[in-house]
């Protein structure tokens, strides 16, 4: 199979053409692309200094249409040492709107414009919404975004300045997502959690890590997870590189969640294949406060398939981790900073050692969460 021949598949196994404007399967489950063959280093377009240098790894029509791009990708990989373990920190706050979401939204928005979508609906705790707002502005698409009323004000301001129509919704992050699904008949639901092309953009971070490390794979990748798009993006991207013969192994995917909202961690610990209903507390790591991830089954399977695991970080360790990273020159939001205490827990459990090549993703800028950080 070539990338151009790839179809979308729902959980029931039904296949759909990839060129249809569709955000979920007829069975109501999320769509994924059939496994793609991946690319080698000779297929990187080194003349392009953005994630689009890896566009040969993307399915049709992305190989042949003009991208909606703000220069996303090619973020720094900076080494820092924590308790004797050297960690490559992928600084995703360097993306155009300040978070890793730009990778997926750039690809998703490119497809939406190509498919003639002129009005898009999104729900977000902040970073996804501000990214959709920016890229829809660049694409000439009218964006309507539902956000929890408690969302960081800086993220809401950013989205509004990009011209998006913002509605603050009372309730939890999960309740906002449920409301968006109910409204999906009024505008095309361009949810970064549902849309299959979003993951195609996120997977390119794996290609970038591979190139950053001299065309080698790390032994482990540590990511914060809410909906789990970074988990799936890394699993898809490194899986493609492995199929292409470009790497010898797929790295273990290690996941961090805040203890106040850790449904994936709980499912891993209990040996479950999906998350269970639970009332979680609020958390400063708002980007990972998702009680029922849309792709929970796929995320849990990806963690297990790579021999990874997941750990929960107590709330009182989040803000000190922001301060620790800031004093190392890296200003990130609590959602990102949780990887530091998570790394220590993983080290104590023997999941990572000084012999590992670890890459951890710093998902978003501290500038987005200034109101939370006055006591750091």
Q: What's the short story on this structure?
A:
This protein is 31% helix and 16% strand.
Describe the structure.
The chain is an alpha/beta fold and 376 residues long. Helices cover 31% and strands 16% of the residues. The strands form 3 sheets. It has a 6-stranded mixed beta sheet with strand order 4-5-13-10-11-12, with helices on both faces. It has a 4-stranded parallel beta sheet with strand order 8-7-6-9, with helices on both faces. Strand 7, helix 3 and strand 8 (165-169) form a beta-alpha-beta unit. The longest helix is centred in the middle third of the chain and has 15 residues, at 229-243. The chain starts with 7 loop residues before the first strand and ends in a 14-residue tail after the last strand. The model has no long low-confidence stretch (mean pLDDT 93).
